[in-house]
Structure formats: structure tokens, C-alpha cells
């Protein structure tokens, strides 16, 4: 990310959104041909690794950066959109998943019984209704909405670009899903458009995926997977982002157990490629409807 900002100073700015619980930077890139000054342009915000064990999502986000900047063939996407790209939304958890526990999901907030808050239950939207108040749970929501410094960084990005964020993609794994809110099963007022764009994302990924991998399942989170509250995509919807999704990238070699989070080295580039096809489809659907 430092290198991209140095190589493309006219297009890329590296921003540290503020320290994590353990004091690390939360870095993201602003990618814009007009230095974020043209307020008529929509913003597409992509993040990954909110759950630290879901490494394949980070690779897919980096692939998208490569396609936007180094190997760009999509002039509309770089000219007509300002991008915010945050490959590592939970840096403390990510380091911990390398150094200590490959399957760490939450952040690293200290708790006397157990460590960590599930950042994807900590946003201020229906907070605490479909999540756990036990610090030892993998879906522990924290002591209050936005109790965690990491989710506050994400919140500030939405605030900073109020009314300009047209698409928000939170890239997770695993399971081959395009999910949208709300996590309690209720649809936002633009539910129909939200669903149509999701279908176009899913179709684009399906057309690019490996034949042996399953088709993506597209739908409302609660109706398709399980109910959840306080999630990033729900928060985005609630602050007026029209097209907000959680992508679940495919499982490691079809695994249905926790090993589904592992990354097949041979799949990394393909995951980036097919996810980029989905990102492009979503961004173009949104641009055309804007
Ligand atoms: O449960 C989750 O947080 C996500 N699935 S995962 O296996 N990656 O943990 C799905 C969340 C999608 N919904 C929201 N963002 N609300
Ligand atoms: Zn996840």
C-alpha cells in the first residue's frame, strides 16, 4: 500500500484511520483521479479481514487494487468512481492469526475471561438483538455499539463521505454467498434494487468461477444464512448506502468445517479474479442506476 501511494501519487493516498485497540494503524487507500475533490462522483468502499482468519478476502482486495491501478483496463471504473480500499479492517486480529491462532476471528480487546469483540456485531444497527453478550462467544458484540476503535474507524469513513458512498462491499469467507441486509430479515426501502444488484454480482462471479466450486447463493442474510445484528453491511444500509453487501468467498477445497478458512495457494489468484468480476458488475450496476 505504501508502494502504491508512492508510485501513483496523483491517484493514490495512504490514510491511517487511527489506532486499533493495540495501537496499530488502520490503513486504507483512497484511489481517485480527482483527489476526492469531485463531490459528484460516487464512492465505492471495499474492505476485508474484519474477521481476521478470513485471509482469502484480503488477497481478493489486493487483487482489486492491482486491477484498478497497475493493470487497469477499466477506465470507467477509475475515472467515474472514487475508491476507498481497506484490505485489513482488523489488524490486531490479523497479526494474532499469523502469530498465535490461525482461526482467530474477533479483535484483541482484553477481557478477564476471554479476549476479543466480534467487530461484525459491534456496529450501531439493531445492536445486541441477534448477537452474544458473552465475552467468550465468537459473536460477542462488545459493551455497547461502537465500543471498538476499529469499527469507529469504519464509521468515520461513512461519515466523511456522507451521501457519496454508493457501494459498500465487506469481503469475508467462507461459503460462496452474496448477502444483504438487514440481518433481522427486514429489507430496506430499496430492497428490490439491492437484490437485483446482488444477483448481478453473483452471476458475474459464477461466470468466472472454477467449474468445481459451487454457484454463489444470493439473498438476504437472515433468510439465506442466519440472523445477525450490528453488522457492517447493515450499518452501511442504515446510513444511506444503497448497495451494501457481505461477500463470502469460497471455502478451502469445499470444506464445511473450520478448515474452510484456510487458503489454497493455487486458488488465491482465481479468488481475486472472480471476485473482481463481481466487484465490477456491482459497481457498474450501481453506476447505471445512479
Ligand atoms: O456472521 C458473519 O459475521 C458473516 N459470516 S462469517 O462466516 N464471515 O462470519 C456474515 C455477516 C453478513 N452480515 C452482516 N454484515 N450483517
Ligand atoms: Zn467473516
Mean pLDDT: 98
Secondary-structure-based class equals alpha/beta
Give the termini separation: 30 Å
List the domain count as a whole number. 1
Percent helix range? 25-40%
Q: Widest sheet: strand order?
A: 1-2-4-3-5-8-6-7
- How many beta-strand elements? 8
What is the CATH architecture term? 3-Layer(aba) Sandwich
> What series of H and E elements makes up the topology?
HEEEHHEHHEEHEHHEH
Strand content: 15-25%
Shape: globular
Low-confidence stretches: none
User: Which molecules other than protein and nucleic acid are bound?
Assistant: N~2~-sulfamoyl-L-arginine, zinc ion
Describe what this molecule looks like in 3D.
This is Peptidase M14 domain-containing protein. Belongs to the peptidase M14 family. The active site is at 248 (proton donor/acceptor). With 290 residues, the protein is α/β, with parallel strands linked by helices. It has one domain: Zn peptidases (Aminopeptidase, 3-Layer(aba) Sandwich), CATH 3.40.630. Helix content is 34%, strand content 16%. It contains nine helices and eight strands. The chain has an eight-stranded mixed beta sheet, with helices on both faces. α6 (191-208) links the parallel β6 (177-180) and β7 (217-220). α2 packs across α9 and α6 (191-208) packs antiparallel against α9 (268-289). The chain is globular and about 50 Å long. The mean pLDDT is 98. Zinc ion (ZN) binds at residues 51, 54, 172.
Amino acid at each position: 500500500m505504501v508502494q502504491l501511494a508512492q508510485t501513483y501519487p496523483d491517484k493514490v493516498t495512504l490514510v491511517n484511520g487511527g489506532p486499533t485497540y493495540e495501537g496499530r494503524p488502520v490503513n486504507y487507500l483512497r484511489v481517485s483521479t480527482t483527489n476526492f475533490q469531485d463531490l459528484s462522483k460516487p464512492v465505492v468502499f471495499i474492505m476485508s479481514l474484519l474477521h481476521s482468519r478470513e485471509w482469502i478476502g484480503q488477497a481478493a482486495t489486493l487483487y482489486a487494487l492491482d486491477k484498478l491501478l497497475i493493470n487497469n483496463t477499466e477506465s470507467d471504473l477509475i475515472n467515474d468512481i472514487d475508491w476507498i480500499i481497506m484490505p485489513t479492517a482488523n489488524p490486531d486480529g490479523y497479526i494474532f492469526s499469523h502469530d498465535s491462532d490461525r482461526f482467530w476471528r474477533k479483535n484483541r480487546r482484553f477481557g478477564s475471561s476471554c479476549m476479543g469483540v466480534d467487530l461484525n456485531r459491534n456496529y450501531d444497527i439493531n445492536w445486541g438483538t441477534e448477537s452474544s453478550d458473552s465475552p467468550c462467544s465468537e459473536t460477542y458484540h462488545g459493551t455497547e455499539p461502537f465500543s471498538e476503535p476499529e469499527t469507529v474507524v469504519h464509521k468515520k469513513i461513512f461519515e466523511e463521505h456522507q451521501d457519496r458512498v454508493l457501494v459498500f462491499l465487506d469481503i469475508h469467507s467462507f461459503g460462496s454467498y452474496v448477502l444483504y441486509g438487514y440481518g433481522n430479515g427486514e429489507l430496506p426501502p430499496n430492497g428490490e434494487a439491492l437484490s437485483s444488484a446482488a444477483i448481478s454480482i453473483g452471476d458475474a462471479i459464477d461466470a468466472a468461477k472454477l467449474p468445481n466450486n459451487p454457484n454463489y447463493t444470493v439473498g438476504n442474510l437472515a433468510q439465506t444464512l442466519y440472523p445477525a445484528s450490528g453488522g457492517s453491511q447493515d450499518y452501511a444500509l442504515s446510513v444511506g448506502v444503497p448497495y451494501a453487501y457481505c461477500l463470502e468467498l469460497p471455502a478451502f477445497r469445499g470444506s464445511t468445517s473450520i478448515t474452510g478458512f484456510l487458503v489454497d495457494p493455487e486458488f488465491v489468484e482465481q479468488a481475486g479474479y472472480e471476485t473482481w468480476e463481481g466487484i465490477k458488475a456491482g459497481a457498474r450496476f450501481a453506476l447505471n442506476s445512479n
